[in-house]
Automatic annotation (TrEMBL):
Oligomeric and partner information: Monomer.
InterPro entries associated with the record: LolA/LolB/LppX, TP_0789-like
Signal peptide as annotated in the record: 1-20
Pfam families assigned: LolA_like (PF17131)
Protein name per UniProt: Outer membrane lipoprotein-sorting protein
Organism: Colwellia chukchiensis
UniProt keyword list: Lipoprotein, Protein transport, Signal, Transport
């Protein structure tokens, strides 16, 4: 009887561990796909703030699954037409003033996008929390779930660690804290202003604060989003990238 009880207890503990692991993976997958679907299109604003100046860019954005992203700046006039395209593992930027398409090498994915605090990777979502990082710790505190992630050995990343804080009830992200390889906190991404767009609820505002640049921050606001939209495959082509609209 004792042996049977021990086996049953062991099975119960292991089952709970697997369920917990699956639950964490589900949260990470949902966050990876939070602003994406089989096809989405929307209008977003990006406000870049520094101690000396600030500017706001208005953009159109299209996505298809996790592999395709297209962004085109509409305002201000001096940046109108600047576009970014992600197609599977490749990323390009188009600059209409010089009429040139530049392919973004992997080494530049962590570089600034249009002078903002967001990187090329942040905007086109090249990396994935569930695929490129592994979970090392999970804990619950004050109705939230804290998940510690570190990059896999083959993952190219600036970050030695990411601390993700998720509201337990909604499983929506509240913030992500990014650490370098020396375990120093480098930046914080806050998720705010939860809204419903169609049948999906998302944080409509993301505010990124770099801790290494005092007085700097970049805010992205989702103004309109249509999920599960019918986005033509021609949207994600180099020909479309170079169109002057």
């Amino acid at each position: 009887m004792k042996a049977i009880s021990f086996i049953f207890l062991t099975f119960f503990v292991l089952s709970n561990y697997v369920m917990a692991d699956e639950s964490v993976n589900k949260i990470l997958k949902n966050i990876d796909e939070l602003y994406r679907s089989k096809g989405s299109q929307g209008k977003i604003e990006m406000e870049v703030i520094t101690p000396d100046w600030s500017r706001t860019m208005k953009m159109d954005m299209w996505t298809k699954g996790m592999d395709y992203t297209f962004i085109r700046i509409k305002e201000p006039r001096k940046d109108k037409g600047v576009s970014s395209l992600k197609r599977e593992d490749d990323v390009w930027n188009f600059f209409p003033k010089i009429n040139k398409v530049i392919k973004v090498p992997p080494s530049m994915m962590m570089g600034s996008w249009m002078g903002s605090d967001f990187t090329n990777d942040d905007l086109v979502k090249e990396s994935s929390l569930i695929k490129d990082y592994k979970t090392t710790n999970v804990k619950e505190s004050d109705g939230n779930i804290e998940i510690t992630l570190v990059p896999h050995k083959n993952t190219v990343s600036l970050w030695g660690k990411i601390l993700l804080v998720v509201e337990k009830k909604s499983e929506l992200p509240l913030k992500q804290e990014y650490f370098d390889e020396r375990n120093e906190k480098i930046r914080i991404l806050f998720y705010r202003d939860v809204k419903k767009f169609g049948n999906r609820t998302i944080p409509a505002t993301m505010e990124l604060q770099p801790l290494t640049k005092k007085g700097h921050k970049t805010i992205i606001r989702y103004k309109e989003v249509e999920f599960d939209a019918n986005v033509p495959a021609t949207t994600f082509t180099l020909t479309n990238l170079q169109k002057r609209r």
